[in-house]
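pasting input
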Amino acid sequence: AQSVTQLGSHVSVSEGALVLLRCNYSSSVPPYLFWYVQYPNQGLQLLLKYTSAATLVKGINGFEAEFKKSETSFHLTKPSAHMSDAAEYFCAVSVYNFNKFYFGSGTKLNVKP
Amino acid sequence: EAGVTQFPSHSVIEKGQTVTLRCDPISGHDNLYWYRRVMGKEIKFLLHFVKESKQDESGMPNNRFLAERTGGTYSTLKVQPAELEDSGVYFCASSQVSGGVQNEQFFGPGTRLTVL
């Protein structure tokens, strides 16, 4: 069975500080991993995805994530937070092409001026 | 290119009533998915269409939920009769079939359903 755990339902950082959002997954087969972001009143937007190529994945808006099989983790990072990064972030896993996603419970990122 | 659209954006109904949610996927996307998020918890899978066929409906909560995708274009999700625990945000997503590569799912803005 597949599952995702996102540690911290709320994360607060200062503008310019490092952003680190944690995601651990459980999967019995090699996973595909995704990070999505949801801004208020909008749908989920893909930030980045891991599909068994490079373990360090770069996404949009300066975000990146590293797949660590030994730690079953796929943490999302950004070196310098911007006010516009304030949103809710979701980690998701799937195991086959076009298969359903299993999502974590989301992390709300607050960026303080 | 238009994204995934959902209608209505909000719906408030009373327990026992019927509600129908609609999703229009991105044109040309054969895969259509329904998900639901209840009270700030995780987004959970409901079902998956490939064109007009139900590929996986393992996440449908019970037989009060009926999803259709006639003609393989838009989809509807009907809840009849609605119960309090059906409240939440219902998301629709679509993806295309392309060379066996895991493609992202494009999500709509969701329909917020409140059952009173």
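fyi The longest strand of chain B covers residues 43-50.
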